[in-house]
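Appendix C reproduces, verbatim, an entry submitted by the partner laboratory led by Prof. M.T., so that reviewers can inspect both the input and the predicted structure.
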Amino acid sequence: MGAGAFRGHRRGSLIAWLLPFWAAWLLIGLLLPVHEAKVLRERLELELMRWRWGGGPPPARAAVAVAGWPRVILHAGGSVASWTGTNAREALDANYAAGGRAFELDFEWTTDEALVAVHNPPGVTLQQFRQNQQGRPLTNLALAEVGDWFARHSGAMLVTDVKARNVEALTRMRGLFPGWESRIVPQIYSLWELEPVKRLGYTRVILTLYLHGYFFPTVEEFLAIAPVDALTIPVNRAERTALERLASWSVPVYCHTVNDESESCRLRDIGAWGVYSDTLRAPWTNGWPGLPGPEAP
């Protein structure tokens, strides 16, 4: 069978497999209580992933040791003045100057299909977004300006948070910023997203659990078959047994969002690798074992 015929056969097989899968998915929601339905749906999703990877050994994770991951990822660029969640240039500037090197930014789509750094859908055009200062003396950033900032700060890492059309947004970023496949670290929200995002060439991918809330046994089974490079969990789900079990897969586990130093130390002590934070920056992380000092600005 030729390669084209094989791909066509594979697509046909996938469609044939998915139709009963989606039918079962809908029936589960109609017939079972919420908890039982969630457990069974996660089981179906895992089985689909096993089928997609052929049941063989999992693809390799990124060749980045856990120790090579940052201890603090600055949420929405980190705080600036008394503001949090801004995704603004001033937040990036202030926190980079203070030693931060890993920045999570939210991205949403404007009404004219531009990607901009903002937490909630702006409901405006790109031009209107650029002119709106959120009622504060801050500079809004579209994707192009985000790229300009990171181009000028070669030591910085971008962690993406794109809740709508994530793979499409990451495809656009990959085209605009060639060669940044190790500097841009996508977050994915469902097991389904891992394969297309890895196919785009990104070397590190974080599975974050706040949107779909996968049960931890599901996550562990997924780690056994798929090259997820790191995990992020809400702080209210962080408990010692879960953190230790997840960390045993040699992936860093982050908790979000943590702005209290004593809480961050408690999480460290029960197995978290690091935190997403508005206010805790790189110099603070000397309290984590084995972390080198922050890179000079």
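The mean pLDDT is 84. Additional entries are available on request from the coordinating office.
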